[in-house]
């Protein structure tokens, strides 16, 4: 019997299934996400490499310091986002597929990411990928963002003015105070008064400093009914570098379930189109 607990086992099953489906000998460039679930994806890549089932010149694009170490420890080749050519002429994409974790995933596969502070590079890599495949355990499978993840939306901000940005995020966003806010945006999230908390480091006094030298504000706003509107709203605040809402980016999500089974989900609207 496995020594892993249920949650870890479900992360591992989801990661293995997603890697097996998406990373074969024809995949030349792979985006490697960050976090504890991606560790299992790296474990599977090591196994596939041993079995000669990977492209002989596979390039892996890291999304954080941690992710780069995973790639190196797996004996794979790390590459920079800027070193990659376009995959197909005229296409924006330079990465075949990216496999990444998530803090919460809704019915449309919009996601909250950045629980580990890596969302800036993760979003850059996701935006350069043909496919973004999310892997997660059952605790992160939601109908609406904010239903299960209660630590707020991670927002990477410039340390130059973090407290001003914090006040703006708390005051700018409140529905009643935003002039010209559309009815759709007013209905985009639950709380009237979001709260932004500067993320503190553990075993070091002071704030978390990201791989990019910035701070993180975790912005709690309850349930997020319109992720795209909220993402855009937060991003408008000067000094906000990246928002941990990934709207309309993921193409597929794999969840390990409590009973040991695995669920693969696609955006609900895509499923309806195929009906
Ligand atoms: O910043 C961290 C990343 O967005 C992670 O992918 C996300 O927090 C999920 O991490 P974990 O797999 O550890 O739950």
From TrEMBL:
Gene3D superfamilies given in the database record: 3.30.70.260, 3.40.50.1360
Cellular component (GO) terms are: cytoplasm
- Keyword entries, A-Z: Isomerase
MF GO annotations: ribose-5-phosphate isomerase activity
Report the domain of life of the source organism: Eukaryota
- Which Gene Ontology terms describe the biological processes this protein takes part in? D-ribose metabolic process; pentose-phosphate shunt, non-oxidative branch
Concerning InterPro entries, the annotation shows: NagB/RpiA_transferase-like (IPR037171), Ribose5P_isomerase_type_A (IPR004788)
Annotated catalysed reactions? aldehydo-D-ribose 5-phosphate = D-ribulose 5-phosphate
Q: In which pathway does it act?
A: Carbohydrate degradation; pentose phosphate pathway; D-ribose 5-phosphate from D-ribulose 5-phosphate (non-oxidative stage): step 1/1
Q: Which Pfam families match?
A: Rib_5-P_isom_A (PF06026)
Family statement = Belongs to the ribose 5-phosphate isomerase family.
* Record-given protein name: Ribose-5-phosphate isomerase
């Amino acid at each position: 019997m496995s020594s892993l607990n249920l949650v870890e086992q479900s992360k591992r099953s989801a990661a293995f299934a997603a890697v097996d489906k998406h990373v074969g000998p024809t995949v030349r460039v792979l985006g490697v996400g960050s976090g504890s679930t991606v560790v299992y994806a790296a474990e599977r890549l090591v196994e596939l490499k041993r079995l000669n089932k990977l492209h002989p010149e596979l390039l892996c694009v890291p999304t954080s310091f941690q992710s780069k170490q995973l790639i190196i420890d797996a004996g794979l080749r790390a590459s920079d986002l800027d070193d990659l050519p376009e995959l197909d002429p005229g296409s924006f994409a330079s990465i075949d597929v990216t496999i990444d974790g998530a803090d919460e995933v809704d019915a449309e596969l919009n996601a909250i990411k950045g629980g580990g502070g890596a969302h800036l590079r993760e979003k850059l890599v996701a935006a350069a990928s043909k496919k973004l495949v999310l892997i997660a355990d059952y605790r992160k499978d939601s109908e609406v963002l904010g239903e299960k993840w209660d630590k707020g939306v991670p927002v990477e901000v410039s340390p130059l003015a973090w407290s001003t940005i914090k006040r703006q995020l708390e005051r700018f966003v409140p529905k009643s105070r935003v002039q010209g806010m559309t009815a759709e945006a007013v209905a985009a999230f639950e709380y009237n008064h979001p709260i932004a908390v500067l993320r503190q480091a553990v075993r070091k006094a002071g704030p978390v400093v990201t791989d990019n030298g910035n701070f993180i504000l975790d912005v709690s706003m309850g349930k997020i009914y319109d992720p795209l509107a909220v993402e855009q709203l937060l991003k408008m605040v000067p000094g906000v570098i990246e928002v941990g809402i990934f709207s309309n980016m993921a193409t597929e999500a794999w969840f390990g379930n409590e009973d040991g089974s695995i669920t693969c989900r696609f955006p609900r609207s895509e499923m309806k189109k195929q009906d």
